[in-house]
Amino acid sequence: MLDGQKLSDPALMRIGLNIVRRIGAKAAPLKMRISICFRRDNQIYRLVWLNESNGGVYLGVLGGQQEFHVSYHQDGTRHTKLDSEYHNRFSDVPIASHTGVKQLDHLSLAMTKEWFNAATRYPGDEKTETLVLLDEGLFCGRDTLALDVWLLDRASEPQLFGAVGRMFAAEKNFQVVAEVVVTLDHFLNHKIGLTLRTARIRMAEL
Fold first, then answer.
1. pLDDT at 51
2. For the CA atoms of 149, 151, 154, 159, what is the dihedral angle to 10 degrees?
3. Burial group, residue 161, by CB count within 10 angstroms (0-12, 13-18, 19+)
4. pLDDT for residue 94
5. Cα separation of 184 and 79, whole Å?
6. What is d(CA 48, CA 106) in angstroms, rounded to the nearest whole number?
7. What's the pLDDT tens digit per position in 6-53?
8. Alpha-carbon Rg for the chain in angstroms
9. Dihedral sign computed on CA atoms, order 74, 185, 119, 20
10. How many CB atoms within 10 Å of residue 203?
């Protein structure tokens, strides 16, 4: 797992995976932004974004036919939004009161050529604070990126490692690409964990 490591850290020098933290840049006062991007044919495309503000945590997917994001508000309200419509709204524990490890979402993203287009191309921006960059070599013969998103309090980090390890052991057809853990800016006793894996399950044209 990687937690706030700097660009010079040896653990970041993995083949096919780059994690870039904008050292020295001032973070926006109300949000932390993570972008998960993909390198294909020397172009960079953004798959997923994650924002945090004092209002909660928000996760969005780009490239679909509809605008899609899920929200976990600071008061515990959770929902999914497709374009302007809300779905699956329910009440959970307020973020600051949460203890243990909670899986916020599981996403299965198609890594097919139709997805990589002008709408998802990433030219860089001033909002992204942390960028996770996946090289196309990691997806050789594979057509799916599985992303699991976790919320945990600081004391529960070993519990997260155990839960993720059991998931890996149970789903051996998935190849682990990266594990990332970052501390939230507005909920300082809590972290977000991202688990990224690849698989060949759609049998689609790559």
1. 93
2. -70
3. middle
4. 98
5. 20
6. 12
7. 333 333 323 344 444 443 444 444 455 899 999 998 999 998 999 999
8. 17
9. negative
10. 7
122-161 pLDDT, tens per residue?
Answer: 998 888 888 999 998 888 888 889 999 999 999 999 999 9
Query: In the numeric block, which tokens belong to residue 55?
Result: 């209002």
Question: How many Cβ atoms sit within 10 Å of the Cβ of residue 180?
Answer: 19
HEC per residue, 17-86: EEEEECCCCCCCCCCEEEEEEEEECCEEEEEEEEEEECCEEEEEECCCCCCEEEEEECCCEEEEEECCEE
Residue keyed to tokens 């600071």: 74
**CA-based torsion, 82, 128, 39, 168: positive or negative:** negative
Q: Which amino acid is at 64?
A: G
- Bridge partners (DSSP) of residue 77 are 91
CA distance 69 to 52: 13
What the block records as the tokens of 94 is: 């307020």
3-state secondary structure string, 72-140? EECCCEEEEEECCEEEEEEECCCHHHCCCEEEEEEEEEECCHHHCCCCCECCCCCCCCEEEEEEHHHHC
What one-letter code names the amino acid at 166? R
Amino acid letter at 157?
E
Report the distance separating Cα 143 and Cα 145, nearest Å: 7
**Burial class of residue 35, CB neighbours in 10 A (0-12, 13-18, 19+):** buried
